Amino acid sequence: MKYYRIMIKTITEAEDILTAELYDHGFEGALIEDHVPLTPLEKEKMFVDIPPETGEDDGVAYASFFLEENDGSEIGNVGLSDAQDNSYALVSNGETRTIDEAVAEVKGVLEEISSYCDIGEGEITVSETEDKDWLNNWKSFFKQFVVEDILILPSWEEPKEEYKDKKILRIDPGTAFGTGMHETTQLCIKALKPYINKDTRFLDIGTGSGILAIAAFFYGLEKGAGTDLDINAVPAVSDNLRNNGIDESRFDLHIGNIITDKQLQDLFKKQSLNLITANIIAEVLVPLIPVAYDLLEKGGILILSGILNEKVTMITDAAKAAGFTVKEVASKNEWSCVILSK
Fold first, then answer.
1. Are residues 32 and 63 in contact, defined by beta-carbon separation less than 8 angstroms?
2. CATH code of the domain made up of 2-137
3. Vertex 107, ends 101 and 113: CA angle to 5°?
4. Which residues have CB under 8 Å from 292's CB, separation 6+?
5. Where in the chain do CATH 3.30.70.260 domains reside?
6. Which of 198, 227, 229, 269 is least enclosed, having the fewest CB within 10 Å?
7. What is the pLDDT along the chain (342 residues), one digit of tens a residue?
8. C-alpha angle with apex 254: 249 to 260, nearest 5 degrees?
């Protein structure tokens, strides 16, 4: 499927009014690109493993709208004016139009808005793209990197010469899960290493791509388990285990919310767990803490990450209230990892 991207150069102050007006004309699903810094709360809610680099805010914004190819149409003239009968037929909001008609309509809306609002340059750029661009472009941002003695390597890359002495963890998160590049994941990997041996009974809550479990296997874990809310974790974990030469029978993945699912809780209570990891936002960790306390044997370790520095006290207070002892708090940039002992 091919698409046309109509991109408008504007200013951040005009983003909302511009996208709202164009929405009313059938241009839906705007992509906004600007350099407005993200607040800590916004970063926490996004919780991606590749934090966006916004750069310095220059007040410039780009609003893009995508129109898809109409089945059965032919590619013809795609200029910005003089629409012809053989122009590329496009669909936006269920309406078929040529690219020239779409651009003309956008120009008209911009002229109307500029009569009462500063929209900046209002320059329009048209480009053509395909689905595969959106499915694979994220790969260009995921590069190999080292955490402790592990090289985390995209499945489509080969290790650099200087990294060939490292343990190689191949990860392919696809489009659903993280890569390990986020500080929170790196803090978790460093934190769990001292607690892994052949007798470790391990549970990773919110396992996602399975990266923490795979790191644990690299450090000597014999068998482990994980939970996740997303059914997409099943193929992601399966693929990543195989890519790292780990038999899938060594890792039991369960789909469900362990905070509220009594069956899951009862299942893991029987296993005398001595190590649990959870790399999730602080607001989810707080209700998880007393559940994890009940699942761990005496002396067991709970490693929590995904915590903004300013929310560490929220976590440590909840941990103490549940009966945990705080062993360590490690930080990297604006994120923290809390290690607790039962």
1. yes
2. 3.30.70.260
3. 140
4. 205, 276, 278, 302
5. 2-137
6. 198
7. 677 889 999 999 999 899 888 888 878 778 888 888 766 666 555 444 444 555 678 889 999 988 776 644 333 333 333 333 334 445 555 567 788 888 999 999 999 999 988 999 999 999 887 655 555 555 666 677 888 889 888 877 888 888 888 899 988 755 444 555 578 888 999 999 999 998 999 999 999 889 999 999 999 999 999 999 888 889 989 999 999 999 999 999 999 999 999 999 999 999 999 999 999 888 899 999 999 999 999 999 999 998 989 999 999 999 999 999 999 999 998 899 999 999
8. 155
Given a contact cutoff of 8 angstroms between Cβ atoms, the answer to whether 322 and 296 are in contact is: no
- Token pair for 249: 């029978």
| Residue 323 structure tokens | 């009966």
Domain 185-341 sits in which CATH superfamily?
A: Vaccinia Virus protein VP39 (3.40.50.150)
